[in-house]
Amino acid sequence: VFLLMAEVVLSLGTNVGEREKWMRLMLEHVGAILDAPGKHSRLMETSPLGVPSGHGWYLNCIVLGEYNGTPLELLEQCFRIERELGRTHKGLLKPRTADIDILLFNDLIISEERLQVPHPAILQRRFCLEGLAEVAPRMRHPMVERTFEELLAAMPQDVADQEILFRTR
User: Which domains does the chain have, with CATH numbers?
Assistant: First the structure.
């Protein structure tokens, strides 16, 4: 199988313990699997959404880069990094040291049990729109055919109301 380099966008998040340490480690590990690590957004501290009370705020970041492999291979690499950084996949909505989601893989649309691309939550999470507009403002969402800059400007009020504390790189 001949594979071309794919432009990928990943979302990184952590809400346990030394979040800055976990984020730095995720950025290092993700940089090692991307053939051409591009850039990452500034760090965003975000309020937990849809989780039981008592969860800590998340530290999030959006990463743009190039990957030489299939979407499922990238998914396995992301799972491996999460495991190496102490994540256990014992249910959704649990506190986690490392959470890596594939937001985009070129302009592919994938709907499988294990992987959905574009990630279904992109348009519902302000940090995703903010980060994508920062690292790839002119990139288009493959399903709605609008740039992330446009989508950020037109985000619904419930998304705009999500609390974010911006931090430096």
Answer: 6-166 (3.30.70.560)
